[in-house]
Amino acid sequence: MYEEPQRPEQQANQRPDQRPDQEQTQRPDLQPDQRPDQQPEPAERQDHGPLAGFTVGVTAARRADELGALLQRRGAAVLHAPALRIVPLADDSELLAATKQLLDQAPDIVVATTAIGFRGWIEAADGWGLGEQLLSALRGVELLARGPKVKGAVRAQGLTEEWSPSSESMAEVLDRLLDEGVDRRRIAVQLHGEPLPGFVESLRAAGAEVVGVPVYRWMAPEDIGPLDRLLDATISRGLDALTFTSAPAAASLLGRAEDRGLLPELLAALNHDVLPACVGPVTALPLQARGVDTVQPERFRLGPLVQVLCKELPSRARTLPIAGHRVEIRGHAVLVDDALRPVPPAGMSLLRALSRRPGWVVARAELLRALPGAGKDEHAVETAMARLRTALGTPKLIQTVVKRGYRLALDPAADSKYADV
Question: Does pTM top 0.90 for this prediction?
């Protein structure tokens, strides 16, 4: 999707191992005329990114292409479904009403919270024939910009901000305003999709008259199907991480899960198996309110967000010494001595079941329960195990214990380490 081809709804309906645009890069062990059940040639060590073998969900409505490209360049498979859509500014009657209100009675202070929102406000005003009048009004007020990108948008319009917090935090903006005193002052606050938690209420409690400027409005996507498929993939642990770049997107996913009666299952996945990664603390608020801990970069940008994933996901992978090889079990692939081996979903389920007790025999009946939708026929275990061994390229990693089951051929020196696992 990011380099050209599929629509988001097409991608969200496919597992990473089914996507035609990723088949060649993610199945290097197969030749064009080779079937998946054939024995592959020994894999050469290959250069792969730190996210190779992991699947990352993207909920962003804007800049999704940029985030997806950053993830894919580091080897990740990406599943994208926008959790929101943005209502065009010029179509928003509330923004027009708020703009006219501020032109009729100028504010003392204007708080600009996002760059895209500030630019969009000016562009919308231009479309209504009010652009110059609005800029003239803003030149005569105390203008506060939440961060560097907002400052850039302000200055691009020929304006100069009075102050901007180094932390890019609305909490620091609020502290400054309250320290200065806001009693009987008129403050215009650019809203960004949903109310700013406690910000407007605190100003009003201190005596300020607050005018909200709804610069853009987040709404549910017109086609909810891709979001539902992303939600299902999260709950089924088809993702290793789920990224959020705005608080409304996080709130939208939680709301959709609640509407479908799946909120407990989503929270369980995010608390245990799927890593929730947020671009900053404001984005994380809806998740934290539900008791979900998140990882965040120190700098609230897409690049640092991807770097956090590059550090966190590999550190969560299980690494074992098996049959003289270093085996690292990732989301949809395995590193065998640094050679990337994509594995089908059924094979990954078996491998995870074996790795929970490395070196111990796991019965066929238990492995059958680990297979998704396998039914009661233990032959399904034998078929999936044969394909797993083929995918790994080193059949001796997994030993058959006659009439009992299967075990990972853990190196003898490591047996004592995992004896009580």
Answer: no
